[in-house]
């Protein structure tokens, strides 16, 4: 068997975790990468489509009537938190994050604002048609009793305090709130999501109802209107604020892989800000338990983004299964992104070792060279540097495979919001950033 054939088999087994081969064959035949046979030397954008303006209040109230009283002229956005193939040509599942939010300084201290506090995170099915992204279906994420989970923070003292649009009025915390990011769809039609707050892994029914939220041991989340299970390592309690789980992959065998967006703050915030080492966790839905943990090391920030010198800007925003034990991992800043291929070797598992103990000194995050200290860091190889591909937008958070040589990426436009008091005019209406949600197809020079 040729290497190209082997690559095709790997992708076909994993594009949507078990899609019928007939469907995959039709997807490949119809994809942009199938057109032409010219020799390609560099990755290139072959297609771009843009989501049109949909008023956020209209969108939200059609799903759950009465949830949004005033959308402050914000349009639907934020669906670029992830991208997962439906199995039909040019169709994807996406998920919003917690909704419009920003930061405003008051007396020199940043406050987290939620201009549309009634917004409910949603699963959104889209189709790329020509140069347009169309919404085919939307599913609100709800509690056990059918109410909106909202995107509001969960716990005082752990999460950022929420404020209204101009940061003058405090809002209430909500233990049901989810800052949803990664999404995959299981064979039974249910969805798995990851969340930044807990951080948590969330199992959601096909109708959007939260079935179970898996959180770190010791989180002690009280008052949620759905089952909360402390099944994740307690070391995750030290996630950086707003940097919990962001990437999620579904392996062909049914296991899930979650990526911590940024290095943990172990033993403290300074260590996390300076660290290049974050963690991936493997979760078995059958066992309802984490079964493996891996150390993943970022490239230096100026390699990922030559315009950036702040290591704390590095993030993992997407992980995609490309084989039974292989992943594409996206390293990014807000301007640039690189995709690397990694293999999850059993010998690299560090679950339950001293690196999961917060008292270990130096911590995993403090090690300048983890491999030299005996940590089996995952090996990786570069697939594509998206920062060098003309036409790829910034802040890419979702990646999906279209075929062996084509990927689709989606950006998070933050609902058109910017930080600062100038984000809204004197009438409290959004001053839109002009950044649109785009799905971009990138053809690679060779098979993944």
Report how far apart the termini are.
16 Å
Tertiary shape: globular
Characterize the largest beta sheet: strand count, sense, and whether it forms a barrel: 8 strands, mixed
Number of helices: 5
What proportion of the residues form beta strands (DSSP E)? 25-35%
The sequence of SSEs as H and E is: HHEHEEEEEEEEEEEEEEHEEHEEEEEEE
> Order of strands across the widest beta sheet?
2-3-6-7-1-24-23-22
Number of DSSP-assigned strands = 24
Low-confidence stretches: 1-30, 33-37
Question: Considering DSSP H and I runs of 4 or more, what fraction of the residues is helical?
Answer: under 10%
The overall average pLDDT, rounded, is 93
Q: Report the structural category.
A: mainly beta
Structural domain tally: 1
C-alpha-based Rg, rounded: 21 Å
Describe this structure in words.
The chain is mainly beta and 448 residues long. The protein has one domain (3-443). It is 9% helix and 33% strand. The chain is built from five helices and 24 strands. The chain has helices at residues 3-14, 21-30, 56-63, 269-274, 301-304, and strands at 44-51, 83-85, 91-95, 102-106, 109-113, 122-129, 132-140, 162-163, 180-185, 191-195, 200-204, 210-216, 228-232, 245-250, 256-260, 277-284, 289-297, 315-323, 326-332, 337-343, 380-385, 396-403, 406-411, 438-443. A hairpin with a 4-residue loop joins β10 (191-195) and β11. It is globular and about 55 Å long. The two termini are 16 Å apart.
Quick structural overview:
With 448 residues, the protein is mainly β.
